[in-house]
Amino acid sequence: MDGSARIWIGSIPSLDPDTREVVLDLDRTSADPAERMVCVLLNRGHEGEEGVFYLLPEDLSARYERTGDRLRVSLLAHRDVLAEDLTSYRDDLRAHLDGLPRDPFDDDRVVLVSRAAVTDFVPAERDGFQQPVVLIDHTGGPAGLTELVALFEKQEAGVIVVAAPARPRA
Asked: pTM score > 0.85 for this model?
C-alpha cells in the first residue's frame, strides 16, 4: 500500500507550532496486518524517567528515501523483536510475519509500513540520524492531519516519535 493519503509534512501545534514534521497516521484497528504489527511494537516502550517511555531504534525505526519529487518513509523492525512480541497475539497476525519484505540494507529487519508524498521537504540530519518521524496512533480509520491533531489534543490518540538512523551507505 502506498498510503499517500496518510503521510503529511506539517506541524503539530501542541508539540511545536514552528517545526515541520513528517507525520504518519496509524490506525490501531486497521485491517492491514503490518500496520497492526507496528501498533504491537508501540507497546514495547522502555521506561526512562518515571512515566516516560522510549521506543528504541532497535525495536522500531524509520527510513527516508527520495525518488524525484517523492519522499518515501518506511517503518522497519528487527524481525526477531517482532516475532518475540507477536508470540502473545493471534496466529492470524503472526502468520503474516514471514510475508513481510526484507529491508534491502539489513537482512535482519523487515519493512512494515511504507508511505510516500510529493514534497520538496528534506529531513534534517544530525549525528547520524535524520529528523524523527511522528506517528499518531488512534482508532477509527484514516483521518486527516487536522483531525489527528485534534484527537491527540483530546487525548484520544497517541503521539510516538520514531528515530530515523541514516541509511547505511553502499
From this structure: yes
